[in-house]
């Protein structure tokens, strides 16, 4: 029963289809159902047919007008070759129909997005048609995000606040806007009863392109204070691979107002404050914007008002008396007060006090001692220094038996190690008095007798010693560190060459004298110096070469021996023979050496 019914249905369907074909002619027309093209490009709408062998065929392309839904001819072509495009059609000038009946549309614009019909008429064989949709694409401009013109957004408002507007212009077809908060997409919500929703709008421009807007509304919380918002526009272009392209706007931060919960009051930069510093105390809250601040200093149970500005309290060149308890009071819009305090400690170090304070004059060999101390707000060090040398760490500087080298300036440095830069220093001068001492003098040198020679005599001693040259000469006095130097010029007479010159020094504590000799510097001596060096270098090099060759010879001998041992199983080879000969010789030598050793024993 069921089989028969199915058979009947199939037969009916076949009859119907056959009937349809007859009714519409036997011509089959084939077109692409859809042709995608970007604005400005050229679209090709192919049209093929089958089912006739007649020569006289007309292929006509139509469009349907958007409003009237009526067909309008665009162009036609006969197989004879005659073709024309309709001057009244909105596509006139843009279209042409080629020999294979393809309709070409140049410089495509959004208004060309239409349904095109290709109709084939073949006389007695009837006619056929098919439709193709031309889809036009235009990339929109980069989306722009704008803050609302009204002032900042407040946390805790009763209704959602406008966060921003995202606009993208001149796209086709109308693209889509997606909002993001911190790079997370926000679901598209249009219900204004929700906390977060978007109000979209679309404008069709005269050009046929679409400008899309989306206004985002939210009830932000304090957590959103640093949130970054952006929007993307999602659009498509011609071609399967060019779908759902996303283009990002610049990010936007919102100006969010929220009340403060805590007040912070602290030093802006420094951690350790010392006398003379400029100190800035900064008061801030965790709210936005910052409220008004008042500053006070606690002075003997009384709050003394201080002048601050925009949360900063600046104290110029602070003194130890500026130490104390400072308070900052923040007052919010509801006149609620909250405060914070900061104990300011101004570190200090007093001047170094040195006893005895006067410059000291000590006799050569006597003892000298100084004490140095100070007071500071924190533990501190005291060092005695001469130049860069540290002599003592405990404030006492004592020298058991002074020498002339001990004379000079001593500096006592106090420092609070916890506070960089908090130092003080004082200096004392030590003068060592005593009989003069002449430093061992250098020889004077002349190239020949009778020439002039300049001699130097340098001596320690305080008070500054007087110099006496024998034979007498005109001297020039200069100072070098603790020494006094007398420089005099003589004619190198035979007498001076033989006996030298005497330099005598004296002050109230005694005298000293030394003889300065004058020598003739020999010309060959000057050459002899360097030539001797050359000879020495040559000898050294030769010895080294000898040593190297010896080591080389010995090492070769040992490697040959080991090589022979290793290579014994290998087959004969010219190199092997040479090696064996050599090693035999080496063995002989070794034997000889052994013999020698044994005879010696
Ligand atoms: C704090 O220190 C920074 C550099 O560390 C400096 O640029 C700034 O000027 C300082 N501020 C004050 C108020 O001293
Ligand atoms: C500093 O003063 C404030 C009041 O101005 C007070 O509450 C606080 O206890 C004081 N701090 C100290 C350590 O004395
Ligand atoms: C110590 O002597 C130097 C010069 O040698 C001088 O500049 C300095 O002022 C003196 N110091 C004292 C404390 O007298």
TrEMBL record:
Highest taxon of source: Eukaryota
Recorded topology in the membrane: Single-pass type I membrane protein
Alphabetical list of InterPro entries matching this protein: CD80_C2-set, Cell_adhesion_signaling, Ig-like_dom, Ig-like_dom_sf, Ig-like_fold, Ig_sub, Ig_sub2, Ig_V-set
A biological process from GO: cell-cell adhesion
Cleavable signal peptide: 1-25
CC annotations in GO: cell-cell junction; plasma membrane
GO function term, MF aspect, one: cell adhesion molecule binding
Span of domain Ig-like: 25-135, 143-246, 259-345, 350-429, 436-517
Pfam families tied to this protein: C2-set_2, Ig_3, V-set
Keywords carried by this UniProt record: Disulfide bond, Glycoprotein, Immunoglobulin domain, Membrane, Signal, Transmembrane, Transmembrane helix
Gene3D superfamilies: Immunoglobulins
Protein known as: Basal cell adhesion molecule (Lutheran blood group)
């Amino acid at each position: 029963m069921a089989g028969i019914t199915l058979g009947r249905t199939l037969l009916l369907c076949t009859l119907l289809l056959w009937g349809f074909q007859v009714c519409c002619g036997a011509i089959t027309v084939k077109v692409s159902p859809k042709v995608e093209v970007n604005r400005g490009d050229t679209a090709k709408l192919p049209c093929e047919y089958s089912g006739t062998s007649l020569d006289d065929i007309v292929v006509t392309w139509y469009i349907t007008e958007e409003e009237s839904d009526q067909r309008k001819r665009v162009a036609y072509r006969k197989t004879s070759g005659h073709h024309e495009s309709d001057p009244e059609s909105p596509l006139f000038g843009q279209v042409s129909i080629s020999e294979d009946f393809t309709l070409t549309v140049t410089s495509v614009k959004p208004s060309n997005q239409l349904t095109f019909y290709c109709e084939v008429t073949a006389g007695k064989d009837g006619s056929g048609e098919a439709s193709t949709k031309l889809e036009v694409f235009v990339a929109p401009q980069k989306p722009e995000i704008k803050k609302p013109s009204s002032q900042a957004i407040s946390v805790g408002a009763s209704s959602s606040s406008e966060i921003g507007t995202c606009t993208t212009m001149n796209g086709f077809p109308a693209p889509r806007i997606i909002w993001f908060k911190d790079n997370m997409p926000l679901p598209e919500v249009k219900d204004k009863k929700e906390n977060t929703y978007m109000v979209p709008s679309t404008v069709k421009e005269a050009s046929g392109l679409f400008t899309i807007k989306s206004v985002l509304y939210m009830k932000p919380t304090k957590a959103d204070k640093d949130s970054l918002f952006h929007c993307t526009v999602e659009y498509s272009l011609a071609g399967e691979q060019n779908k759902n392209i996303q283009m990002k706007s610049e990010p936007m931060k919102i100006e969010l107002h929220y009340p403060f919960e805590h007040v912070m009051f602290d030093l802006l930069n420094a951690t350790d404050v010392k006398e003379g510093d400029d100190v800035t105390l900064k008061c801030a809250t965790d709210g936005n914007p910052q409220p008004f601040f008042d500053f006070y200093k606690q002075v003997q149970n009384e709050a003394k008002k201080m002048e601050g500005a925009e949360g900063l309290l600046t104290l110029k060149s602070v003194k130890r008396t500026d130490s104390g308890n400072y308070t900052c009071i923040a007052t919010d819009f509801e006149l609620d007060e909250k405060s914070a305090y900061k104990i300011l400690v101004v570190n200090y170090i007093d001047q170094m006090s040195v006893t005895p304070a006067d410059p000291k004059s000590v006799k050569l060999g006597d003892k000298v001692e100084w004490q140095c101390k100070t007071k500071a707000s924190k533990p501190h060090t005291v060092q005695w220094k001469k130049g860069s040398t540290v002599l003592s760490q405990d404030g006492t500087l004592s020298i058991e038996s002074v020498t002339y080298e001990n004379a000079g300036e001593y500096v006592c440095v106090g420092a609070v190690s916890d506070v960089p830069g908090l130092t003080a220093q004082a200096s004392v001068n030590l003068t060592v008095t005593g009989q003069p001492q002449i430093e061992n003098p250098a020889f004077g040198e002349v190239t020949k007798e009778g020439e002039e020679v300049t001699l130097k005599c340098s001596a320690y001693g305080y008070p500054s010693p007087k110099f006496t040259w024998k034979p007498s000469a005109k001297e020039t006095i200069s100072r070098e560190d603790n020494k006094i130097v007398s420089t005099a010029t003589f004619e190198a007479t035979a007498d001076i060459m033989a006996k030298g010159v005497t330099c005598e020094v004296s002050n109230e504590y005694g005298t000293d004298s030394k003889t300065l000799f004058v020598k003739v510097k020999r010309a060959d001596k000057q050459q002899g110096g360097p030539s001797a060096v050359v000879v020495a270098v040559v000898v050294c090099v030769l010895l080294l070469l000898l040593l190297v060759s010896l080591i080389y010879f010995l090492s070769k001998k040992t490697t040959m021996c080991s090589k022979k041992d290793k290579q014994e199983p290998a087959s004969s080879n010219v190199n092997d023979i040479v090696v064996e000969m050599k090693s035999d010789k080496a063995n002989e030598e070794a034997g000889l050496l052994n013999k020698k050793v044994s005879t010696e024993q």
